[in-house]
Amino acid sequence: MASAHFRAGVVIVVRSPDLTHVLAFERADAAGSWQLPQGGLKAGEAPIEGAWRELLEETGLGEVDVVARAEFPEWLAYEWPDELKGLKGGLAHRIGQVQRWFLFDALSPDIVPTPDGSEFVAWQWVEPQWLVNHVVEWRRGPYERVLGTL
What's the Rg (C-alpha) of the chain? Predict the structure, then answer.
């Protein structure tokens, strides 16, 4: 679903065993800014493969910690704010991202993610609406769309 203007990626929602909370991660480059694990797809990589790879790279969580439950049925897109388009768009001059969202369930309430330190520095279990309220505004639309279904 990538295009000349949107980078294709994935977003991973990890839900607690009680099904009422999700894992949120604080960004390393913006204290107080929280989000879900996400990242771009590699050439030829299926979205579910990218979701597993990004989850492991950014949080240290894998198949012994979580199980994949569902995939949101649509690609969701957002544009970067103007001040970021030049920085993030690169030589392709992209203006945003289009993402597949995946729902994973934690197998135990005792899992302990290990933030990668370069993108994330902290984590916590939060209610989905809390995360919607604490993600940067320009990502909020897809967060409301998906987390509002939990």
Answer: 15
